[in-house]
Structures are given as structure tokens and as C-alpha cells.
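Quick one:
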Amino acid sequence: MKKWRCTVCGYIHEGDTPPERCPVCGADSTKFELVPEEPAETPSAFGEPETEALRGPSPVEVPGWARRYPRAYTLAAKGVEFAAQKMVAHHAHPVAVHSPNGILPAAFLFTLLAATLDLSALGLAAYYNLVFVLLTLPPVLYTGYLEWSRRYRRALTPVFIAKLASAATVSLCALALTVWRTMDPGILNPGAQGKGWYLLAWVVMIAATGLAGHLGGKLVFGGRK
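Output:
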């Protein structure tokens, strides 16, 4: 039986022909390749096997300062590339995303309790947790970009579009809610103006967080067969 690999997410299909659509990421049949019996590995510059998915992007034009200091540029470029390869190979994005995914639901619960029971201490705890989440988002987004660009070749199938939109929604909501709470510390007090909109923004952020986590799990586990 032939095996076909989705070049976007790695899903393996068994059959004489590839499927019309990948059940994991939604890529069409043209994105499938026939799996050889013994896939070849290319040695990397650091003496380790390197798969096609982990290779860096195509070379870009060298900036002017690099021509003046070629040795420093080469060392810096090798260091950045080495770090990027290791982050993708060792799944830095799924590791990094555990912080916001674990903290946000608890912070949302604190926010609801503070809003309904007038518990200012829980509201303050939710605010500090939100600030921490906001600080963790840059590495989460950066490692997610590396994962998307290197492992999934910047594919724009429905799954990835939804995941990118979810990440943008979470980031914007986290920033807006943090600024909002900083500017108006009493937003959760009884009768506070805009309280309903503040809570709605929390609901949107939690929904986007859950969707991003679901799609990420689908990509990680859906391609295994």
C-alpha cells in the first residue's frame, strides 16, 4: 500500500492516490508527496540530521554592515539559525504556549468572581495574571512563527488562517484588557460603566485561546497515524 505525506502538516495517508483534502490541515491533494521507503536525511551544518521541515528559509540579501564585518555577521547568523533549528526541533512553541493557556482560564474565573461577588482581591489577582500572560506572548508568538514558517512552510490553509487569527485575537485582547484595567482599576466594581464590554472582551479572548489550543492539538496529534 502506498503512503502519501502531507507536506504541510505531515499527515500520512495510505492508498493508491492521495486524498482530495488533508483531514488535518485542509491542504489539497497537490500538497501530498509519495513517501519513499527510506526517507533520506541531509546532514546539517552542526553535524546532526536535518529534515526538510527544519531547514531555514532561503538565503536573503546580505545587509551593508555585514559586508564590512563578515566574520561577525557569519557568527551571528549561525547562532540565530542554530537557535531557531533547536527551538523548532524541540517544540519550543507547544512548551511556551502552556503558560498563557494555563493561566488565562484561572484569571478569567477570578475576573468573573470579582465582578459578581465584588471581590476586589480576586480582580487584582486576575489583573496581575493577565500582565504575566502579556509578557509571555512575545516568545509564544515568535516560536509559533518559527513553527509555522519552517515546519509548515507558511501554509495558509483554513486551519492555519484560523490559528493565526486566534493568536492575533488573544494578543490584541490581552493588550486591550491590560491597558483598560490599568486606566480604570474599578472596572469590575458594581455598576461600573463599560463593565459588560470588559467581560465580553474576556470571553472573546478565552474563546480564541481555546480555539488556538484545539487547532494546535489537531496539528500535533492529527498527523500521527
